[in-house]
Specification:
The chain has about 200 residues and is an alpha/beta fold. The chain contains six helices and six strands. It has a single domain, classed as Rossmann fold. Strands 1, 2, 3, 4, 5 and 6 form a six-stranded mixed beta sheet that branches. Strand 3 (about 80-90) and strand 4 form a beta hairpin.
């Protein structure tokens, strides 16, 4: 154990090296400049089935669906914080991210709220509009789970359509950097607090 804080960034974009992956990498790099250990994972290519609302997890602490959610959930449960990043599709977070949120939210609750007091943040990228709806979908998971959500100088949104466009959004990049600085500040202070 290194004693360093860990943050996992989850990209919910089906496009490899698209704008969501790019802005998330930029954010994680800023966190690394604070000495935080980061890992970027993707939902792309993973089998993430929708929640069946079977409530099996409520009685067993395990999800009955055998797909790729469990190892990703375990990574988030072991980390000090995580970022969910997704592109906007029809004014909401891309579908695979929404399925992921439903599954990990139920599973965390079934295991005694394992995400509580972790640090989390949502990020989203769109060509033009719909950011706030997608951001809210992800943000509500953090709030529901009792997580600590740092802000930035603006909502955690960026603009871009074609791969790489987001690197021309100067305000979006600054917002991502400020989010990372604030997340690092919170993680540093939490590291000195006694565990409840």
């Amino acid at each position: 154990m290194t004693g360093k804080a860990t943050v996992v960034g989850v990209s919910g974009s089906p496009r490899k090296d698209g704008n969501t992956d790019t802005i998330l990498r930029h954010t994680l790099a800023t966190l690394e400049s604070h000495g935080i250990l980061t890992e970027q994972v993707t939902l792309r290519g993973k089998r993430i089935e929708p929640c069946r609302a079977c409530r099996h997890c409520r009685s067993t602490g395990e999800c009955i669906i055998e797909d790729d959610v469990r190892p990703l959930f375990d990574k988030l449960a072991a980390a000090d914080g995580f970022i969910l990043a997704a592109p906007v599709y029809f004014s909401g977070a891309a579908g695979q991210m929404k399925c992921f949120i439903d599954r990990i939210g139920y599973l965390s609750g079934a295991r005694g709220r394992v995400f509580e007091r972790k640090v989390g943040a949502p990020m989203t990228v769109a060509r033009r509009a719909g950011h706030n709806f997608a951001l809210a979908e992800m943000l509500f998971l953090f709030l529901h789970q009792g997580m600590i959500v740092p802000g930035s100088t603006y909502w955690n949104v960026a603009f871009g359509m074609d791969p790489g466009d987001v690197m021309s959004d100067a305000e979006g990049l600054r917002t991502a950097e400020n989010l990372a600085h604030n997340m690092a500040w919170v993680l540093e202070r939490l590291s000195t607090e006694p565990k409840p």
